[in-house]
Amino acid sequence: xxxxxxxxxxxxxxxxxxxMGSTAHIGSIFSMADLMAVLYGKIMxxxxxxxxxxDRDRFILSKGHAGGGLYxxxxxxxxxxxxxxxxxxxxxxxxxxxxxxxxxxxxxFSTGSLGHGLSVAVGMAYAAKxxxxxxxxxxLLSDGECDEGSVWEAILFAAHHQLxxxxxxxxxxxxQSLDFVRTTLALEPFADKWxxxxxxxxxxxxxxxxxxxxxxxxxxxxxxxxxSCIIAHTIxxxxxxxxxxTVLWHYRTAKGEEFDAALKExxxxx
Amino acid sequence: xxxxxIKTLLEMAKEDPSIILVTGDLGFGVFNEFxxxxxxxxxxxxxxxQNMTGLATGMALxxxxxxxxxxxxxxxxxxxxxxxxxxxxxQANVNIVAIGGGFSYGSLGFSHHATEDIAIMRxxxxxxxxxxxxxxxxxxxxxxxxxxxGTCYFRLDKSDAGWTNRDGEKxxxxxxxxxxxxxxxxxxxxxxxxxxxxxxxxRLSSEKINCRVLSVHTLKPLDRAAMTRAARETGGILTIExxxxxxGLGGAVxxxxxxxxALPRRxxxxxxxxxxxxxxxxxEYLRTQYQMDVTAIVAKTLELSGS
Lengths: 270, 307
Prior knowledge:
The complex is a heterodimer of chains A (about 270) and B (about 300). Chain A has helices at about 5-20, 25-45, 65-75, 115-130, 150-160, 180-185, 190-195, 210-215, 255-270; strands at about 60, 135-140, 165-170, 200-205, 230-235. By secondary structure, chain A is α/β, with parallel strands linked by helices. Chain A has a single domain (about 5-270), classed as 3-Layer(aba) Sandwich (Rossmann fold), CATH 3.40.50. Chain B folds into 2 domains: about 1-155, Thiamin diphosphate (ThDP)-binding fold, Pyr/PP domains (Rossmann fold, 3-Layer(aba) Sandwich), CATH 3.40.50.970; about 175-305, Rossmann fold. Chain B is built from 11 helices and 12 strands. Chain B has helices at about 1-15, 30-35, 50-60, 80-90, 115-120, 135-145, 195-205, 225-235, 250-260, 285-290, 295-305; strands at about 20-25, 40-45, 65-70, 95-100, 125-130, 150-155, 175-180, 185-190, 210-215, 220, 235-245, 265-270. In chain B, strand 5, helix 6 (about 135-145) and strand 6 form a beta-alpha-beta unit. Classes of the chains: A alpha/beta (about 270), B alpha/beta (about 300). The interface between A and B is medium-sized, with 29 and 25 residues.
C-alpha cells in the first residue's frame, strides 16, 4: 500500500470531517497522520473483513481527541463506508469527536480522557503473554498526555513484566492544549526517561515513512524482554503551512477561506 | 467475609483458568494459599490503582474474568474514571472487590472509611453493585460474579451476620432477602450491619414489634417489588447503612417507593448524615458514635412506630 497516499487521504478526510464541528483537534490529527498511515498500511495485521479475528494486532489510540484520524484510516481501509465520515460530530452520529468503539468496527477501545490507553494496552499485552498470542499491541499517545501519572504507572508495569509485545508510539509534536510542551511541563530528556524505566526507546522523524516503518519492523527494539517506545518527532498541523507548529491549531476549525486554502495545499501535495 | 470470598474464589479459579486475581499490593497474608496453588492466576499490580483497573479492563477484553482487590476507596475512587470509562463503558468483566466497607478499618482513620462508595458506584451505568450482609451471601455472590454481564462492584465488610441462609435457599441477583418475617415495621439494611439489625429486631419483638428484615445484598439492580411491598404491607421503613445517607441505600429505597406510589407511613434513613467520620475506633464503637448500632436501631424504630 502507498502509505504517502493513505496519509494524504487521512488529512483530506479529516479536514472535511472536522470543518463541520468545533474544538476539532485538526493539528493533533495531522501530526499523527503519517504514523497512522504506516501502522495501518504496512505494519499491523488487521483485516476489515474480520475486524475481530483473534490474531489481529491490537491498536489503541490513547490520544482520543484525534479520533477523526482513526475513523478516517479505518474507513479508507474499508472497515466501514467512507460516507459515514460525513456524520462526524453530527447529531445522532456514532463518530464522536473523541474516539469510541460503539458502532465502529476496527476500534478496540474508546478513549477521550488522557492517560487511559496505555494501561489497557498493557492488559492486552499481558493477556497475550498468558495465552501464547503472537500478535502485538500498539498504543499511540500524545506528548501532553505523558503529564498524566497513570501513564507512568503503566510504563513501570510493562517493563517489570517484560512486555516485549507492546509498542508505545509517541506523537511528539511539542505542543499541548494551551502552550508548548517545553513551557508547560517539560518532558526532556524524554527518551532517557523511557529508557531508565526499562523500555527500549528510539527517536524517529514522525513524517519519514521509511524511518517509521523501519523502526516498527525492528520491534522489539533490543531483542526480547523489553517493551518498545518509538518517540516520533512530529509537527503539529503537518501538511498545511499555516497550521504547522502553532498552538492555535490545536483547537481551531478550518472554515471558509481557511478551509479552501488548507484543502488546496493538501491536494497539491504529492 | 474476606476469607469466605478468597476461599470461594480459589475453588472457582481452580476450575476456570480464565479467572485472574489482581491486587493493588494489599491483602498481606490473605492470598498465601491462592498464590501457592495458582501462581499464574495471581498478579500484584503494585500501588497503582489506575493502571490496575486499566490493565484489568485490557485483560477482560481479551477474555479473562478479572477480580481487582484493594481496601475501601482505593480500587474505586482513586481510579474512578478508569472504572467508568474503561471497565463500565466497555462492559468489561472486571469485578472490583473492596474489603473494608463502612467503618471496617475504623481505627485507621477517615481515608480508610468507605462511606460514599455505594452512592458513587450505583450512579455509574453498566455496573452491578453488591454488599453482602452475611457469609452465605458473600459466598453465593462470589460464585455468580464472573457470569454477570459487565462490571461489578463487590463491597466486603469486616463484620457479618454469620450464616443466615435457610436450607436449600438460592440467592438471586437483584432480589432482597427476607431474613426475618414481620408485618409491624420493616428494617432494610445492606452490608455486615445486618447482624446488628437482626439483634435489634429480636429486641423489638420483646417490645411486641414484629419487624421484617430485608438484606439488600444487591444495591444495583435494586429489588423494586420487595421495597414497595415493605411500604404497603408494614407500618414503615427504617433503612440502615454504614454509609452516607446521600445517594445510598435509603435514598434508593425512597426513590423506588415514590415512583411506585407506595408511600411508607413512616420512613427514616439511618447512616452518616453528610459527615466525615473524623474519630477513630473499632467498627462497633463507630456505629455507636454515629448512631447506627443496635440501641439506635431499636430506639428509632420505637419512635417511628409510635410505641
